[in-house]
C-alpha cells in the first residue's frame, strides 16, 4: 500500500536501487574489469538499470572506468573495476615466535608484507608491538584502514575479553586483554583462531579452492585444525571446533603424562615441535636439538632421527584417522612448522598408515603450498569481505543526499 505523499513507494524504490547497486558492485569485484553488457548478462538487470547503478557507484567513489575492451568489431565497450584505494585491510598472524602482517587494498592486492619476531613475553609487550606494526602499515595506506583481522591461537571469549586455549602466548588469557588491544588499534578489528584462518586462506588461495569439505591441520609449536564444511568455516557451539590438540592420543607416550599435558592437550604434548625435540633427546640425540635439526637428520638417514620421525608419523596418522572417521573430508592439508616444512620426511609414512587404519579409505593428504602465509591470507580474505561491505554501506549512506542525474528527487 502507498501512503499519502508516496513515502512507501519512495522507500521501496530506494531499497531496490541499493540492492541493484550492491549486485553490480559485487559482479564488478568478481569479474572486473567488466563492461556494461557483461554486467547486464551476469546480473539479469536491464542496461538502463546497469547504467544508473554504475553512475551512482562511480559518484560514490566505489568503482572507476579503466579503459575499453579491444579486439571486437563495433564500438569498444567501456570497462569498470572497483576502486581499490576505497578501502584498506590489515591481516595479522600472531604466534608465539612470529608476527606476520600484510596490508591489502580493496581489490585484494597486497601492497606491504612484514614478518617480525614476536615480543610475546607478556600481553602488554605484544599489544604494543602489534600496535606499532599496524601504525606502520596504516601509514602506508595514508592512515585509512577499514578493517583489521587478527589470527591467533585460542578461542576468543568475547564476554570476558580474553583468549582461551592459547597456552603458548603468555597473558593472552587475562580478562580484558582484547579490550586493551581494541584501545591500541586504530580501526575496527576481528579476532579469529589462526588455524581457522589458515583453512580460509587455503580455501581462497590454495589446495582447498573449489572444495566443499576439507580440513587444514597445522603441526608446529602447537597443533590445531580448521574445518570447512559445505564450503563454510565450521566453528562449533563455542568456537572451539578443530582444537585437536586435546584429542586423547598417544597415552602410552611419557610426554602424555607430563605436568602441563592437560593445559596443552595430549596430542600436542606428544606430537608438536617441542615434543619432537623431547622424543629425540629421550632416544639418544645429543647437543642442541631443534625440530628442524631432527627432520634434517632424518633426511640424511640418522637412525635416532628416523625413529623419532616415525613416532611423529604414528601420532599424526592416529589423529588424522579420527578426523576422517568424524568429518569424511575430501582433502587434508598439512601446514605449520612440522606439517609444512617437515612433512616430506614423514608424509609417505602417514599415508601408508592411514590406509591400514581405516576401511573408509583415506582422502588426499597434501602439504599446503601457502607455507607461512596461510594465516595472513585467510585474515586478509576475511577482512576484505567485511571491508567491502563497510565501504559500500558508508559510501551509499554518504551519497544519500546527493541528487542523481535523470532523477527528480534526491537519493533516499
TrEMBL record:
Gene3D superfamilies: 3.30.420.40, Winged helix-like DNA-binding domain superfamily/Winged helix DNA-binding domain. Pfam families: ROK. CDD domains: HTH_ARSR. Belongs to the ROK (NagC/XylR) family. This is ROK family protein. It comes from Actinoallomurus spadix.
Amino acid at each position: 500500500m502507498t501512503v499519502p505523499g508516496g513515502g512507501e513507494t519512495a522507500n521501496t524504490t530506494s531499497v531496490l536501487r541499493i540492492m541493484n547497486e550492491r549486485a553490480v558492485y559485487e559482479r564488478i569485484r568478481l569479474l572486473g574489469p567488466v563492461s556494461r553488457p557483461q554486467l547486464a548478462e551476469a546480473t539479469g538487470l536491464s542496461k538502463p538499470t546497469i547504467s544508473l547503478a554504475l553512475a551512482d557507484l562511480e559518484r560514490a567513489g566505489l568503482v572507476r572506468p579503466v579503459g575499453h575492451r579491444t579486439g571486437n568489431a563495433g564500438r569498444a565497450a567501456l570497462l569498470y573495476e572497483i576502486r581499490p584505494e576505497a578501502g584498506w585491510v590489515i591481516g595479522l598472524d600472531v604466534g608465539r615466535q612470529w608476527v606476520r602482517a600484510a596490508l591489502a587494498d580493496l581489490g585484494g592486492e597486497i601492497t606491504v608484507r612484514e614478518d617480525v619476531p614476536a615480543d610475546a613475553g607478556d600481553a602488554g609487550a605484544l599489544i604494543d608491538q602489534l600496535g606499532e606494526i599496524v601504525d606502520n602499515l596504516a601509514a602506508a595506506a595514508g592512515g585509512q584502514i577499514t578493517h583489521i583481522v587478527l589470527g591467533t591461537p585460542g578461542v576468543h571469549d568475547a564476554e570476558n575479553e580474553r583468549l582461551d586455549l592459547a597456552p603458548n602466548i603468555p597473558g593472552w588469557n587475562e580478562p580484558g586483554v582484547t579490550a586493551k588491544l581494541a584501545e591500541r588499534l586504530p580501526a575496527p578489528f576481528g579476532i579469529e583462531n589462526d588455524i581457522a584462518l589458515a583453512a580460509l586462506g587455503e580455501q581462497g588461495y590454495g589446495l582447498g579452492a573449489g572444495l566443499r569439505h576439507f580440513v587444514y591441520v597445522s603441526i608446529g609449536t602447537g597443533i590445531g585444525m580448521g574445518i570447512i564444511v559445505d564450503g563454510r568455516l565450521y566453528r562449533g557451539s563455542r568456537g572451539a571446533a578443530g582444537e585437536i590438540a586435546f584429542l586423547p592420543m598417544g597415552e602410552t607416550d611419557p610426554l602424555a603424562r607430563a605436568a602441563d599435558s592437560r593445559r596443552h592437550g595430549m596430542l600436542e604434548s606428544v606430537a608438536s615441535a617441542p615434543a619432537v625435540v623431547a622424543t629425540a633427546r629421550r632416544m639418544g640425540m645429543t647437543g642442541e636439538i631443534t625440530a628442524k635439526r631432527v627432520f634434517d637428520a632424518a633426511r640424511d638417514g640418522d637412525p635416532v632421527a628416523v625413529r623419532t620421525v616415525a613416532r611423529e608419523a604414528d601420532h599424526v596418522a592416529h589423529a588424522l584417522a579420527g578426523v576422517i572417521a568424524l568429518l569424511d573430508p575430501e582433502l587434508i592439508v598439512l601446514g605449520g612448522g612440522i606439517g609444512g616444512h617437515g612433512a616430506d620426511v614423514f608424509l609417505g609414512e602417514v599415508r601408508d598408515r592411514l590406509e591400514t587404519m581405516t576401511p573408509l579409505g583415506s582422502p588426499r593428504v597434501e602439504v599446503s603450498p601457502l607455507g607461512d602465509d596461510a594465516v595472513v591470507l585467510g585474515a586478509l580474505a576475511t577482512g576484505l569481505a567485511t571491508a567491502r561491505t563497510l565501504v559500500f554501506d558508508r559510501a551509499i549512506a554518504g551519497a544519500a543526499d546527493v541528487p542523481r542525474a535523470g532523477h527528480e528527487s534526491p537519493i533516499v
